[in-house]
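Sat 14:20. Reprocessing the chain from the morning session after the first attempt stalled halfway. Input below, unchanged.
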Amino acid sequence: MFVLDSRLEQDTLNLGDFPMCRLLLMNDANYPWFILVPRREEVSELFQLDPADQQTLWREATTLAETLKDTFGADKMNVATLGNMVSQLHIHVIARRRNDVAWPGPVWGAQPASPYSGSQVDSIKQKLKLVLTVNFRFAE
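Finished this time. Tokens:
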């Protein structure tokens, strides 16, 4: 049974599910920062997924990155799997802008997290509802 890592649960907001991955929003309004988590048990590395799941994960990550680039007017998309702090396999998909507080450096530790307000989260959800129309189920 899939269980989300407690640190991811603490630091993110659940937006919904692609066929394979849970889509989370990092609760940091400094950046449009999203996280994909494959709903697979005890997987910490990409190579632990079977080939079909690897392809599905990559397809969901690239679809999300393309969607976010257009939706949030990103200058650059950062897509990464690290897992040094959270071992559960997850992919960061971050829409970067030349005027964000960390540009051109990495977002990790650049600025204290600035939690989203309810209206900011609602705005992001509304933007995503316009573009994530196929193979995505929004959380209630």
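The chain has a mean pLDDT of 96.
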